[in-house]
Structures are given as structure tokens and as C-alpha cells.
Amino acid sequence: MRKAADTAQTLAGDIRAAGLKSTSQRVAVLAALQQAPHSSADAVLVSVRSTLPNISAQAVYGILSAFTEAGLARRVEPAGSPALYEARVGDNHHHLVCIRCGAIKDVDCVIGQAPCLTPDDDSGFTVLAAEVTFSGICSTCAQQAETSAR
Ligand SMILES: [Zn+2]
Ligand SMILES: [Zn+2]
């Protein structure tokens, strides 16, 4: 296991590699995203405040959008849910979203190379990526429904 200090350095390196200045606030936001993928901006704020109690919501939102623009974070927007952020980027993975509890799981691309879907009519586009959200009912919710039906 990596020590905390090593991890912070690795994160700082990732931030610089994306062309951003590394600050303790940015490192804390990236750490929060790695610990809890698919977090809303507010969840990231709560998590970052455990180490940096004085950070403003504005600062966290600003960092999340800078990360998204720089390709360090990905923004996922499932229907009916606030935008979620994750640090797993560049692999064209997809998501399964539970319509009952909002649980979200990563799905690796079925074929492995982006895009794994071919549009029926690409309208002359050169397709670079495809994003699929599978919505359904997670196993926990399905079990609960089954238990309460008895
Ligand atoms: Zn569920
Ligand atoms: Zn994901």
C-alpha cells in the first residue's frame, strides 16, 4: 500500500501532467474523487471539508469544472440525478444506474475499444467516443422488493 504522502505526491503529479497548477485544494478534490467515484459536487465538498474545513463550495465547484476541462475528471449525468464526477477518465467506460436508489456502477466497454457502439447513421461524423447509461434496478433494490412482496 502507498503511504498517504506518496499518494498526495502522485495526485499532485497527475494534476501538473494535466497542465494545471497543483494546490492542496486540488489535491484534496482529486483524492476525494478517487476514494468515492461518481460523487456529486456536494458530496465532494463534504469529503474535502474533512481535511480542508475552510474550503468554499465555490472553490470545489471551480476545481471540478477545471478538472473536467483538463481531462482529469469526467462528468456523468444520469437522468434524474445531479451531475456526478469521477477520476476514471479516458477509457470510454459506461454506467449502470439504479432508478430506485441511484446506485451507479462502472461497466467496461464490451468490445474494449472506443467507441464500442456504431451509430446506425453517423451523419458524416468521425465518432470518437460513445457513452451509454444502462438504467435499471440494482440487486439490493430488487431483493428489497422481493422481500416486501412476501
Ligand atoms: Zn437500487
Ligand atoms: Zn464511472
Automatic annotation (TrEMBL):
Keywords associated with the record: Cytoplasm, DNA-binding, Iron, Metal-binding, Repressor, Transcription, Transcription regulation, Zinc
Subcellular location: Cytoplasm
Cofactor (UniProt): Zn(2+)
Pfam families (UniProt xref): FUR (PF01475)
GO cellular component terms, semicolon-separated: cytoplasm
CDD domains found in the cross-reference section: Fur_like (cd07153)
InterPro entries assigned to the protein according to its UniProt record, in alphabetical order: FUR (IPR002481), Fur_C (IPR043135), WH-like_DNA-bd_sf (IPR036388), WH_DNA-bd_sf (IPR036390)
Cofactor note: Binds 1 zinc ion per subunit.
Listed GO MF terms: DNA-binding transcription factor activity; transcription cis-regulatory region binding; zinc ion binding
Top-rank taxon, per record: Bacteria
Amino acids binding Zn(2+): 98, 101, 138, 141
Family according to the record: Belongs to the Fur family.
Protein name per its UniProtKB record: Transcriptional repressor
